[in-house]
Task: structure prediction
Amino acid sequence: MNFDAGWTSVDVPDIESLSRPVLLRSQCLPARHIFPVHSHRWNQFVYATAGTLVVTVEDSWYVITPEQAIWVPTGVMHTTGALHGAEFRNLYVADQPDLGMPRTCTVLSVTPFLRALIVELVDIDRRGEEARYISRVNQLILDQLRRLPVQDLRLPWPRSLALRRVCEALYASPSDPRGVDEWGAELGASARTLARRFERELGMSLREWRHRLRLFRALEWLGAERSVTEIALELGYASTSAFTYMFRQEMGCSPTEWRAR
Result:
């Protein structure tokens, strides 16, 4: 994804070392503000208690809501931005031999208990708690991180200019119904060639990619308080009920229930 147009760059915090095994850094990110591509000398748990984050890692794009977070291992280049403003609650986690966390970027479902622990960590410094209590909260957070369910919630982005042309057009107009035949004619390639390129570069078909894109745009627009009916029609669904069915299949709840959470 190209975040140059319409996005404001935010300085990456200058932190030399971690003072604790788990260090919290809170920040309010205004709408369409983004950290440039960077990495850390420690692991990062990217999370927002409110709002929607967009995270890019290599050729994948992730939309992170308050029900999800993304684990970014030490040294991985990434960006993080806010689509419509977010209460950014970032955990820096030191490498440990027994950490037991994924070695690759992974989307995780955030449990209510972990969310409560993160909120507690926000309040700890303000209250001036003793070091022993802080250490216990940190250990509870580490224990909970290892137990979070994994979600397959990412949108791969192509490297080649031809496929990027298709994907950028669909991102701008997700209701576009054109399949591999029409896009192949547009690009001067056969439908079979285009289908193979999608599978090779993105690991999924054009149809599967568009389905995932529509889910991501739904999450983005729900976070912007757009109506469910408006979202359904702009995504290309024939009815609100058809959109709601898709959303429930993917997220386990209706769009209205998801927004209420």
Observations:
- DSSP finds nine helices and eleven strands in the chain.
- Residues 15 and 88 are 17 Å apart (CA to CA).
